[in-house]
Amino acid sequence: MMMAVDLFNTLEHLKEDEFKQFKWYLQQQDILEGYQSIKVTKLEKAERQDTVDVMVKTFHLHGALKVTKKVLEKINRNDLVQSLSDTSSGPEGQSNF
């Protein structure tokens, strides 16, 4: 089962500049169809844990996972997308990503 801690662990793999880019993408309109962007003020001083909390509050866990994967693709960290996919396809079988 996918947990917020899995998102946090994924963000831990980002270098500082990648993490900055990641937060920038979260603030863009239409980063993912049907999901709102996050206000700059909520992410400005946010560390990785805070960022996960804000994402889960904004998108719920399932949405936060989808948004995270989308942003990771944009910043060319497909390796992390892959490891997140491995985490999220747990005993429930097929996931719909």
Automatic annotation (TrEMBL):
**UniProt-listed Gene3D superfamilies:** Death Domain, Fas
Pyrin domain ranges (all copies): 7-90
Q: Which Pfam families match?
A: PYRIN
Entry-linked CDD domains:
Pyrin_ASC-like (cd08321)
Any idea what this protein is called?
Pyrin domain-containing protein
